[in-house]
Amino acid sequence: MIYQEKFDLNDSTSDYFSKQIDILIVGLRDDRTRDERCNHVRNALKDFKGSVFYLGTNETAEAFEYEIRDASNSLLDKQDGLTLIPGLKKFLSLQSISSASVCIDITCLSQPILFLLVKIFLSEIKPKRLFASYTEPKKYLKVSKVLTDDEEFDLYDGIVGCNYSVPGFSKINRNDNEMLVAPFGFERQRLISIYENVEPKGGLIPILGFPSFVPGWDLTALYMNYKVLSDAESEQKIRLCDASCPFGIYELLKLINGIYSHEFRLLLAPLGTRPHALGMAIFATKYKDCHLIYDFPIEKKFRSEKVLKSNIYHLSGFID
């Protein structure tokens, strides 16, 4: 049995988790020193004595770079221009992961790196214990000048495009019996593009983050995606899942897979919240007949303002 453990990271729990974590993995971004959410988990772990691994990648997720810093933020090591595969696995193999408790802060981490870390930690280089963390935003930045109703929020500079080869997961051979399962967020174009690219014979099962981080965000997501939901005739297929819970979407995917896997191969498109992306990566690692596909969006700097709350997820039960 996999225990589903989700905790608030606050003043009453920060001391405990500071002592439970040996390695904290954080996104390496140019704006991380100025983005409150990127630093919130690290700053909340006031008594943390371990190492911080900052990991970043390029737009196509072919290369990666890292920095290692100690608890006082002194730089211990750094390198760039490494190939993501097999470079990330080789880097982790040198870090004594098997004797460490690792926490992946997914807040500002590149999602291709997140997918690959999940695959590595659950089935290849296994830590003593595995946690993840996520800091919810109070507010996303809106488009300053709305000329059309295409997008309301200013979240991305562009999208590389749909790819059937996600780092760490096998490239799929397309067939006619596919069903697309996709959590969706505020970005209208992402779900439209992937749906039109895949053209799934089994249709689309959309997953709406509800409860959402902030009341009303679920309604915004529905409004922004109403056209593709209508075109796919999937309005009656919408499933609900707590926007902040990777465990909830993992269980929902188990249910969907149990119903449809005898007829369709599931293609999983993690377009919604990062906790949903985490849950989908875990599921794709455990259920190898299901496949991740991704569109590699180029995220804007300073996408959000202020911190709502931070969650810690205990994932050790998923380690093989």
What does this structure look like?
It is a single chain. This protein has two domains: 5-140 and 303-318, no CATH class; 156-299, 3-Layer(aba) Sandwich (Rossmann fold), CATH 3.40.50. The protein is built from nine helices and 15 strands. The chain has helices spanning 14-20, 36-44, 84-93, 111-123, 188-198, 217-224, 226-231, 246-260, 274-286, and strands spanning 5-8, 23-27, 51-57, 63-69, 75-83, 101-105, 129-140, 156-159, 178-184, 204-209, 239-241, 265-268, 291-292, 297-299, 304-314. The strands form three sheets. It has an eight-stranded mixed sheet with strand order 1-15-7-6-2-3-4-5, sandwiched between helices. Strands 11-10-9-12-13 form a five-stranded parallel sheet, with helices on both faces. Helix 4 runs parallel beside helix 9 (274-286) and helix 8 packs across helix 9. It starts with a strand and ends in a 6-residue tail after the last strand.
Give the CA-based shape. Answer: globular
Query: What kind of oligomer do you see?
Result: single chain
SSE-based structural type = alpha/beta
Question: Runs with pLDDT <50, length 5+?
Answer: none
* Biggest sheet architecture: 8 strands, mixed
Q: How many domains make up the coordinates?
A: 2
Helical content band:
25-40%
Count of helical stretches: 9
Radius of gyration using CA atoms only: 19 Å
H and E order: EHEHEEEHEHEEEHEHHEHEHEEE
Average pLDDT number: 90
What separation lies between the terminal Cα atoms? Answer: 12 Å
Query: DSSP strand (E) fraction?
Result: 25-35%
